[in-house]
Amino acid sequence: MNSSLSKTLAIMRKDIIAELRTREVIVSVLVFALLVIVIFNFAFGADRTTMEAVAPGVLWVAFAFAGVLALNRTFIPEKDNGCLEGILSCPVSREAIYLGKMLAAFLFMLAVEAVTLPVFALLFNLPVLSPPIIITTILATIGFVAVGTLFSALAVNTRAREMILPLLFLPVAVPVIISAVKASTLALAGQGWGDILSWLQIIVAFDAIFLVVSYLIFNFIIEE
Amino acid sequence: MAVPGTPAIKISRLTKSFNHRPALRGIDLEVARGESAVIFGPNGAGKTTLLKILATVMKATSGDISIEGFDLKKNADEIRRRIGVVSHHSFLYESLTARENLEFYARLQDIADPAGRAREVAAMVGMTARLDDRVGTFSRGMQQRISIARALLHQPSVLLMDEPETGLDQHAISMLWSLLAEGGHTILLTTHSLERGLELADKVIILDRGKIVLEKPGREIDLNSCKQAYLELTGDRP
Q: Mind telling me how many Å the CA of A62 is from chain B's nearest CA?
C-alpha cells in the first residue's frame, strides 16, 4: 500500500479506536442532534403543512450544530500529552494527517446521521429516508468535515476554541447548508432528480473546492 | 543513507523569537556521530525550544540546521526518519493501550512489522506485561517508559531527549542511562540533573537566555567545576 495512504488510514483507525473506547464524540453529538429534533417537533406541533415546511431546516440545524460539536473535538486529543508533536516528528505528510482526521470525523458524523434520520422520520412522519435526502446528507457531510477539520486545527491552539470554531466554520459552511436545505425541501415535496440535481451540484462543487483548498493549506495551519 | 563525513548535528546561527521576544540567540553547535551532548540550563534558557526545532515540530526564525548531512529546511522527512524524540510530553493517547500507541507510531514510521517491533521496544523498557493496558491507567513513570520505547521504534541514529528522566524511578533512570550508553546513538539531551548528565556527557553545554555560555568536552569537567561554572554563568543554582 502507498505509504501516505497507509499513514492516513493509521490516523483514521487510531481516531476510531479511541472513539469506540471513550464514545466522547458520538454520544454527546447524537444526544444533541436528537434533542434538537425532539424540541422542534414539540414546538411545531402536529400540523403536517407546517412540519413539511420547517422539516428540512430543522434537520440541517441539527446536523450543522451537531457537526460543530463533533468538529470541536477533532484535534483536542492531539493536544493532550503533546500527541500532535509526536505525529509531526514522524515522516508523515501534513496532508495525510488532514485526510486521516477528516475521514474519521466524516465517519463519526455519518454514524450520528444514520441514527438521527430514522428518528427524524418517525417524529416528523416524513419520508427522509429517501435516496435524494440520503445522498444530500452524505455529500453535505463531506463539505462540512472538509472545512470543519481545517478550522478545528486552527481553533485548537486558541484559548476560546469552542467559540472560535463556530464563528469561523458556520459562515464558510453556509452555502452547503443552504444547498442541503433546498435539496431536502425539493425531495420532501416529491420533486424529481432534475430539480434536486442543481443543488447537489453546488454541494459537490463546494466539496471539491474546500477539499482541495483545505488539503493544500493545512500544512501552514498545523505548523506552529 | 546518511551523508558520510558530516557531523550528526550541525547548527549554525540559529535564532528563534516568539512575538519579537528572543528565545534562542545565535546558537552554533556541532555534535559528532555517536557523541552524547548534554545541555544544562535554567528554566527559560531555550533548551526545549532548541530541541523542538531539531525535532522539526517548530520552525526557527533564522539559521541553518543539518542532521546527518540533511538540511532541515529541504529534507525534513529524511531527518524525521533518523531522529527519536522524547519530550516532557509523552506523545501517547491515554484512551489507547500501550500496544496500540506503539503500533500506531510504528505505522507512521513505515516499520514493516509494527506488532513485532512494538513488542521488542516494550521489552527494552520493561513494559511487556502492561502492553495491553490503557496508557491512561499508567503512572507518569510508566508513561515515560512507553514514550522512550516509542522514540526507539524506528531505531533512530539520533536521539533528542528533553529531560527524559522525568517521572522515572531510580531503577528506570539507571535502565534508561544504560540503554543510552550502550545504544551507540548520537544523543542531544537536556536535564536538570548535573550528576546524571555528566555520567553520559561526551560534551557539556550550558545554555542561558538563548545562548550557549559554555561548551566543553565532558572529560574536561567534573561535577564540582560544572556546578561552579553553572552558578557563575547563569546566576542560578543547579
A: 28
* Number of Cβ atoms within 10 Å of the Cβ of A61: 17
Q: For chain B, what is the domain count?
A: 1
User: Over the stretch B71-122, which tens digit does the pLDDT of each residue have?
Assistant: 999 999 999 999 999 998 999 999 999 999 999 999 999 999 999 999 999 9
Asked whether residue B3 is domain-assigned, the answer is no
**pLDDT score at B184:** 86
Span A129-148, average pLDDT: 95
Kindly state the percentage of chain B with pLDDT values over 70.
Answer: 97
Domain count, chain A: 1
**CATH at residue B91:** 3.40.50.300
Quote the domain boundaries for residue A150.
Answer: 3-222
CB interface of B with A, residues 64-93, below 8 Å: 77-78, 80-81, 83, 85, 87-93
Cβ neighbours of A88 in B, within 8 Å: 56-57
Question: CB–CB of B104 and A88 under 8 A?
Answer: no
The pTM (predicted TM-score) of the whole model is 0.91
The model's confidence at residue B4, banded by pLDDT at 50, 70 and 90, is low
Backbone φ and ψ of B196, nearest 5°: -65, -45
With a cut of 70, say whether residue B54 has pLDDT above it.
yes
- Are A85 and B108 in contact (CB < 8 Å)? no
Mean pLDDT score across all residues of chain B: 92
pLDDT at B1 over 60: no
Print the SS3 string covering chain A. CCHHHHHHHHHHHHHHHHHHHHCHHHHHHHHHHHHHHHHHHHHHCCCHHHHHHHHHHHHHHHHHHHHHHHHHCCCHHHHHHHHHHHHHCCCCCHHHHHHHHHHHHHHHHHHHHHHHHHHHHHHHCCCCCCHHHHHHHHHHHHHHHHHHHHHHHHHCCCCCHHHHHHHHHHHHHHHHHHHHHHHHHHHHCCCCHHHHHHHHHHHHHHHHHHHHHHHHHHHHHHCC
Whether residue A100 lies within 8 A of chain B, CB to CB, comes out as: no
In-domain check, residue B138? yes
Provide the residue range defining the domain that includes B22: 9-234
B117 in contact with chain A, both atoms CB, cutoff 8 A? no
Q: Give a yes or no: residue B211 inside a domain.
A: yes
Q: What is the pLDDT of residue B2?
A: 59
Considering only CB atoms, B108 lies closest to which of A7, A77, A82, namely: A7
Residue B2, domain member (yes or no)? no
Residue A89: which of B56, B94, B107 has the nearest Cβ? Answer: B56
